[in-house]
Amino acid sequence: MSTPNLKIENLRVSIEDKEIIKGLNLEINGGEIHAIMGPNGTGKSTLSSALMGHPKYEVTEGNVTFDGKDLFEMEVDERAKAGLFLAMQYPSEVSGITNADFLRSAINARREEGQEISLMKFIRELDKKMELLEMDSSFAHRYLNEGFSGGEKKRNEILQLMMIEPKIAILDEIDSGLDIDALKVVAKGVNEMRNPEFGCLIITHYQRLLNYITPDKVHVMMQGRIVKSGGPELAQRLEAEGYDWIKEELGIEDETVGQEA
Ligand SMILES: Nc1ncnc2c1ncn2[C@@H]1O[C@H](COP(=O)(O)OP(=O)(O)OP(=O)(O)O)[C@@H](O)[C@H]1O
Cβ contacts of residue 80 below 8 Å, gap of 6+? Predict the structure, then answer.
């Protein structure tokens, strides 16, 4: 099996004629965990929305390939089937479909006909992963995300990740609204996924999550592009000193994407 690969080259994305992503390059391979950090409004969420194919986000330039295939030529469900996990691809609340039903059909959507996961194996895996994520077994039988608290939804997102076993995952603000115990549990789930067949991009505001998930690479996004990359020590410096030193280093006067440097 070849190593999973997501390659973003010179990506430019606009919303309503306003350019938000301005020439972004990033490559994620299996076995790697990357983190993107950056001030508010620099285009971090726009990046994940564009990759998931949100119709409001217009890709004006650049290429994105997933395992060598043009991502933007693939339908959103094809992207998931091929092994790209974007949390936003999955419905936030669905009445009448239980969490377990949803997970089983999402797993089977990635398998060939006749290779569907058996009910026994599915239940075994689900039990194991829910235990690891310290989730009460009743969550399996509740309607998808209905009435889940913010923290429970995030935990459920990690359960989806662990059950679906994608090749590459993009986790946008997975740490928002989590208390410290939930944060540790979410980190435990992502760490459990670490293997050469899995690559991950974590979009986060706080270095806090990165105390529990050590990224291989940290990227700083400003004004719609990656302006600095480094190792975990970069995230620690950002936590301690903020972004001003990078702006000074690069001669950036204003971090809002609406204005040119
Ligand atoms: N649907 C939209 N319509 C209009 N403007 C948008 C839309 N989505 C994003 N923007 C604008 O694009 C810019 C980048 O937003 P984005 O959410 O990608 O930033 P971010 O880096 O994720 O910010 P934060 O750290 O605050 O979550 C912002 O100025 C935002 O107002």
Answer: 86, 89, 106, 109, 110, 166
Neighbours of 152 (CB within 10 A): 16
Strand partners, 9: 63
Q: So what's the ipTM on this one?
A: 0.93
Residue ranges covered by each domain of the chain: 5-250
User: Are β-strands 199-203 and 57-66 bridged in parallel, bridged antiparallel, or unpaired?
Assistant: unpaired
Ligand 1 site-directed mutation target among 17, 18, 19, 20, most atoms within 8 Å of CB? 20
- Output the six-digit token pair for 208: 């806090």
pTM comes to 0.89
Q: What is the CA(193)–ligand 1 centre distance, in A?
A: 29
Task: Taking residues 22-26, report their average pLDDT.
Answer: 97
CATH class belonging to 5-250: alpha beta
Q: What is the pLDDT of residues 116-164, one digit of tens each?
A: 999 999 999 999 999 999 999 888 888 777 788 888 888 888 999 999 9
The DSSP code for 166 is -
